[in-house]
């Protein structure tokens, strides 16, 4: 299983990093986890953007789904696509309100917003309540604690496990999500300090403590906000765990 970082900036894009988005590949099957601002551009460095087999959206904040509008333009108007997008619709597993919310995001003008429909090139389904099979992948969604409905994803293939927290504050579900994961891709949006909002995101310390509780084998920190000190967050995480820990960067690739 291979993980490619399409973007890793939290809340907004950074000067050198799109927002959150990830490509996961195994055995010829490709899935996208989130598609925040700028991630469709990074995707094109590595694969034809028509080739992913599914898109999973953890939640509907712009830094995790804003490039869905650009993906809609691509699938509707590319002059020479490799297949007919209307015949081979992209499966999108997302929060229940995604069809309406994403149609409004894409709508080219206010008059077309009401009743807009993207089902010509996408096939929407709610975030699955039971494990989902996609090619060699088994994907289990865990509801996590955020200011809107949000899910983390546990992705198993080839005898390996990638756990992705998405956006979350501390919650009990995270431990099972990350249990014995080969790679824990955890948000660490800010340093652990009294000034940070409580329960909205993880700090570097909290991501490290999660890796410890879950016995994860490797910790990758993502969703670092441009106004925070990345080095401080990394040092904080390493202080609280012996699990190998590093910051991800845009376009980095990892074997899970």
Q: Specify the helix fraction band.
A: 10-25%
CATH class call? Alpha Beta
Unreliable stretches: none
Number of domains: 1
Instruction: Provide a count of the helices.
Output: 7
Radius of gyration: 17 Å
Q: Biggest sheet, in brief?
A: 7 strands, mixed
Give the termini distance in whole angstroms. Answer: 5 Å
What are the main properties of this structure?
256 residues, 28% strand, 14 strands, alpha/beta, globular, seven-stranded mixed β-sheet, 7 helices, Metallo-beta-lactamase, Chain A
Task: Describe this protein's structure.
It comes from Actinopolyspora mzabensis. InterPro entries: Metallo-B-lactamas, RibonucZ/Hydroxyglut_hydro. Pfam families: Lactamase_B_2 (PF12706). By secondary structure, the chain is α/β, with parallel strands linked by helices. The protein has a single domain, classed as Ribonuclease Z/Hydroxyacylglutathione hydrolase-like (Metallo-beta-lactamase, Chain A), CATH 3.60.15. Helices cover 23% and strands 28% of the residues. It has helices at residues 39-46, 62-65, 68-77, 98-106, 173-178, 204-214, 230-239, and strands at residues 2-7, 21-26, 29-35, 54-56, 90-94, 122-126, 132-134, 137-144, 150-157, 160-164, 183-187, 219-222, 245-247, 253-255. It has a seven-stranded mixed sheet with strand order 6-5-4-3-2-1-14. Strand 5, helix 4 (98-106) and strand 6 form a beta-alpha-beta unit. The chain starts with a strand and ends with a strand.
């Amino acid at each position: 299983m291979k993980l490619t970082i399409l973007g890793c900036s939290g809340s907004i894009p950074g000067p050198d990093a799109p927002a959150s988005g990830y490509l996961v590949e195994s055995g010829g099957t490709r899935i996208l986890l989130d598609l925040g601002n700028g991630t469709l551009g990074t995707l094109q460095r590595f694969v034809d953007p028509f080739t992913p087999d599914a898109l999973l959206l953890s939640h509907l904040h712009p830094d995790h789904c804003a490039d869905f509008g650009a993906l809609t333009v691509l699938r509707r108007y590319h002059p020479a696509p490799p297949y007919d997008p209307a015949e081979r619709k992209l499966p999108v597993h997302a929060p229940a309100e995604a069809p309406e919310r994403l149609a409004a995001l894409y709508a080219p003008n206010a008059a077309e917003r009401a009743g807009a429909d993207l089902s010509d090139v996408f096939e929407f389904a709610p975030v699955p309540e039971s494990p989902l099979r996609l090619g060699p992948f088994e994907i289990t969604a865990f509801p996590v604690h955020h200011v809107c409905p949000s899910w983390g994803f546990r992705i198993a293939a080839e005898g390996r496990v990638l756990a992705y927290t998405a956006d979350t504050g501390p919650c009990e579900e995270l431990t099972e999500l990350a249990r014995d994961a080969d790679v824990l891709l955890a948000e660490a949006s800010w340093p652990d300090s009294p000034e940070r909002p409580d329960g909205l995101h993880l700090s570097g310390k909290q991501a490290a403590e999660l890796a410890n509780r879950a016995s994860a084998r490797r910790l990758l920190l993502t969703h670092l906000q441009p106004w925070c000190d990345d080095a401080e967050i990394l040092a904080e995480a390493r202080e609280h765990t012996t699990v190998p820990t590093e910051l991800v960067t845009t376009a980095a690739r990892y074997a899970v």
